[in-house]
Design a protein that fits this description.
heterodimer, A: mainly alpha, B: alpha+beta, elongated
Amino acid sequence: MAATTNWNEASILTPWASPGDALSAEGGLVTDDRMEIESIYRKYGAMVLRRCRSILGHDADADDAAQEVFIRAFRGLAGFRRQASPATWLYRIATNICLNRLRDARNRQRLDREALPEAEPDRPVENWPRDLALRILGEFDGRIRETVMYVVVEGMTADEAAEVMGCSNSLVRKRLATFRERAPRKAARLLGGIR
Amino acid sequence: MSDTRHRCPSALAFERYLLGELDGTARARFEEEIEACPDCAAALEELRADDAAFALRPAPAALRSFWTGEPPARGVPWLRVATAVAALAAAAVLVLALLPPRGEGEEAGGEVPAIGERGAAGTTRIMGDEATGGAEAAGPAGLALGFYLLDASGRPVLGGPGQVLREGDLIQFWYGGGAPGSAVLVGIDGRREVTRYFPVGGAPSSLPAAAGRLLDSAVQLDDARGAERFFLCVAPGLEADRVEAAAREVASSVADPALVERLPLDCEQATVWIVKE
């Protein structure tokens, strides 16, 4: 389910059940799962909310995205249990959900109305203003977006990003090279189209 | 010469440190870096304060319902167990006729029809429309889409994304949130065929903003194998033809339509998908 805006309390009707989950007579999760789910939220909630705010900035959007992160995690409880680093797993889900939201047309319209970054598209991408880098990310596919988010926007090393995404350092570098090659043209087009 | 410039830990490293996920070596290295960088030390204190503030916040009702087992106050009441399932036979997707709209003077909260009950217009529903309660305007919340299905014993249960279903299974959609407007529900199946599920025939039907409401009719699934994704699109004056055209565009141009989460339309949308075996 992809609720795209302001997911408030009323918009989630009942807990989702994943195929194969044990269901109570009412169609909800069994008691042990419920206790685990609550502890997951208590432990990781602040981190997920911070992560969403760091990307979306907008508080209501961030709250909404954080809820989506946890709903995905709760539905994929078996996957959560297998994680060596649950924090990294949730961090990645939050990152991708927020980047998807940034790409959402309405959010882009909102961003476009906000202050435009002062940017020179021919500067190295590592030196671009964060807002511009975020905006350009919407033009790239998921893997490249996530890689650039970690390395260009947040300053992770290629090794750190590779560890987070569970891929090789060379793959990270390859994605960055693709971004560096294509981003200036996309940035010029974006800025030219807006201004 | 090696690069001796200080490099601050990543945001993720801060989080993993606070959550106790760093092992001994990594933890010691992180603490050395914090000690060497006043800005990082200040940032760590801010995160600790933020953690404390978060602990005081009540969890959103939508999440709390996962561990309390109770739906949010304005949500759908828990499923009622019905006693019989109508045997519906159809080789293709069959969308059963919608019930006539309820008159303005009628009260909400009426009797829930039994599963498979046929209404005056030949409608079959898994859940009665009035099971939703609180369906009055709920303000501009995010649009959500889901469905109920019948389990092996004929009980209605919530379906979820990726639910595995079979030919002949009945599902009934619910929606929640969103602004009022004309609504169109379409699906793209494993054969890349587009089917409109709501409204059935005629002009687009208007949906009120609702905390939770069921679409009137149940849908019987056909024999198209694979993933099928459903899109609920809502906007004032939205034309069903535009939605169907957007769905057909996705169906014909995207490698795997089931992975698409939005149709190329400027309107409020929600989506859910199933797999037909």
